[in-house]
Structure formats: structure tokens, C-alpha cells
Specification:
By secondary structure, the chain is α+β, with helices and mostly antiparallel strands. About 40% of the residues lie in helices and about 10% in strands. A hairpin with a 5-residue loop joins strand 1 and strand 2.
Length: about 325
């Protein structure tokens, strides 16, 4: 019996030695979690941040990826209502703004003699980059290395599978198809910057447009597979565009006011509310005819001019670089 075992054991070891093993997802997450808890044991991160392990195995404080879903609304010093304290501090971390808890509960609507529209819901660079990082992480977790008896799938293969699943047959993904692709993994798309779920859904749609704009080379608001792949290439660093106005550039998150409407710089574009002004509110910068109320058509034209000016400034930058 002993001789039989000594003959079989080397054969089994040889088989094991030539086999490429891949830990099951549950065990991989357990190992990663154990490694993280060990590396981050003595690391303290501020509010809205959490300790993560870098590729070099070093601790690093990053913005919290996802807050716990419990609801205890708070009003921020920026006048925005958050689902809980964690969401407030997380938003402060993502936007780089100093936001404090003003009081518990929803923010009260400010009553003023002159109605000024609240800031529009926008997808900031931080929102866009966070969503992109989540999708890349999700796809990388589905990559399967080649095994002994079966061929695996690389990052491109995995992305192509999803592209074919959600393409309607025209070999392109529009914003609706792109959103359906993201909804395949609710965890990846679960961006909750607002207390109101309807606003969060709008935020996700806006971030889809921001992602499409990243790699839409022919500006048709649809992505071919090559454009789709370029959007999620792990080694690609998305550009951080600024907004231009009156020969000045503005950082992401900057705001300006035109009559009773607010405009916010988001992902290199000015995004404005479109409220009909009943009272005259002095603009930040007065121009000829600024004391007259704008019609809807004039307002649309004004917003278009802002973004056209933005495009002109960027083209001038490119021309300067070429020279």
C-alpha cells in the first residue's frame, strides 16, 4: 500500500505543477481583505477617505468608494442635502471642496426676494473618473487567464462580449445602450452623490455622456468598439479639461451666474439651469442689455456661446502647441 502511494504522489504533483490555478472570487476577496487589513492597520484617514493598498503594497488614503446605504439626511454648508454624513464627506473628498455639516435633516429652501436657481445637476470630473474606475475594476475581475485545458479571455475579449450584448446591430453604442451596459453591474454604477434617487439617476446618465465624450473621435455621440475600448483602457489617463469664459479659464466645479440662472463648469463644459426669470437679478458680469430679461431662445443662444467660446479657446491652445 505504501509503495502504491509513493508511485502515485509524484504523478499528481507533476500534474499540479503544470496547471495554472486561479483563486475563486470569494477566496481572492478574502486574501485581498486580509492583506488590506494588515497594511492599513495603523493608518488613519480623514473623514470621507479610506485606506487602500497600492500596487506596491503600500497604504494610501483615497476617497471612500461606496458609503453604507443607511439614510440619515444632513444639510451641507454648500446648501446641498446628503443621504448621510458619509456621503457629505465623500463628496467633499471627490470635489476637493470644504463642506461641513450645517444641520441634521434636509436643507431648507432659501426664501429671498430675488429668486436664484439652484446649481444644476452635473457630472464632475471626479464623478466621471470614479465611474470609469469602477467599470475597469469590474471588467478586470472578469478576465480569465489561459488554463491547462481551456483558453481564457483578456480585457479586450471581455469588453467585446458586452459590446455585442448591448449593440442593437449598428456596431455602435449610443448613450442608451451604454447605460444599459453599465446597469449590468449595479455596484459599478451605484453613484449616490445626492439624497434624491431621481437626481442620482440623472447624474449617472450625465456621466455616461461624459464617458462617451472621452473617446468619441468623430463626435457623433456613439462609440465604435475601438472607441469603446479606448474609453476603458486601464493605462489611459483621461484629460482634465477646464472651462473658458471671457479670456479666462475655470477649474471643474467653478460657478457663474447669468440673471437668475447658474452655470457650472463640469468636464470642460458650461452646464446651466434654464429657469424663466421673473425678477431681475444682477449678473456677475454686466454686459450690454443685461438689465433686460432673456427669452428662452436668447438663453439657449447664450449657453451655446459659452461652450462655443470654450471650443475656440481649446483650438487656439492646440494651434499654439503645434507652432
Amino acid at each position: 500500500m505504501t509503495a502504491f502511494r509513493s508511485n502515485v504522489l509524484p504523478v499528481n504533483l507533476a500534474i499540479l505543477g503544470n496547471t495554472r490555478w486561479r483563486w475563486p472570487p470569494s477566496m481572492r476577496s478574502c486574501i485581498i481583505s486580509h492583506s488590506k487589513s494588515k497594511v492599513c492597520a495603523n493608518v488613519f484617514c480623514g473623514a470621507g477617505r479610506e485606506c487602500a493598498v497600492t500596487e506596491k503594497g503600500e497604504p494610501s488614503c483615497l476617497c471612500i468608494e461606496q458609503c453604507k446605504p443607511h439614510k440619515r439626511s444632513v444639510c451641507g454648508s454648500n446648501g446641498k442635502t446628503y443621504r448621510n454624513h458619509c456621503e457629505l464627506h465623500r463628496d467633499a473628498c471627490l470635489t476637493g471642496l470644504k463642506i461641513q455639516v450645517y444641520h441634521d435633516g434636509h436643507c431648507e429652501e432659501k426664501k429671498t426676494d430675488k429668486a436664484v436657481a439652484a446649481s444644476p445637476i452635473v457630472c464632475y470630473l471626479a464623478n466621471r473618473n470614479e465611474l470609469r474606475s469602477r467599470v475597469i475594476q469590474w471588467l478586470q475581475n472578469e478576465v480569465v487567464p489561459d488554463g491547462w485545458f481551456a483558453k481564457g479571455s483578456n480585457f479586450s475579449d471581455t469588453l467585446l462580449k458586452y459590446f455585442k450584448d448591448y449593440d442593437n446591430g449598428d456596431s455602435q453604442l449610443d448613450s442608451t445602450e451604454f447605460l444599459k451596459f453599465l446597469q449590468h453591474n449595479e455596484t459599478a454604477i451605484n453613484i449616490t452623490s445626492y439624497a434624491d434617487e431621481e437626481n442620482n439617476r440623472l447624474l449617472r446618465s450625465l456621466c455616461v455622456d461624459a464617458l462617451i465624450e472621452l473617446s468619441d473621435e468623430n463626435t457623433d455621440w456613439k462609440l465604435s468598439f475601438d472607441e469603446f475600448l479606448n474609453c476603458f483602457k486601464p493605462g489611459f489617463n483621461p484629460p482634465e479639461r477646464k472651462c473658458a469664459l471671457e479670456d479666462e479659464t475655470y477649474e471643474d466645479g467653478a460657478e457663474t451666474q447669468v440673471e437668475c440662472n447658474r452655470c457650472v463648469c463640469a468636464c470642460g463644459n458650461w452646464v446651466c439651469t434654464a429657469v424663466t426669470c421673473t425678477d431681475k437679478v444682477p449678473a456677475v458680469e454686466k454686459t450690454e442689455g443685461a438689465d433686460q430679461e432673456m427669452t428662452e431662445e436668447e438663453w439657449t443662444r447664450r449657453v451655446a456661446e459659452l461652450n462655443k467660446h470654450q471650443e475656440t479657446v481649446e483650438k487656439m491652445k492646440v494651434s499654439t502647441k503645434d507652432i
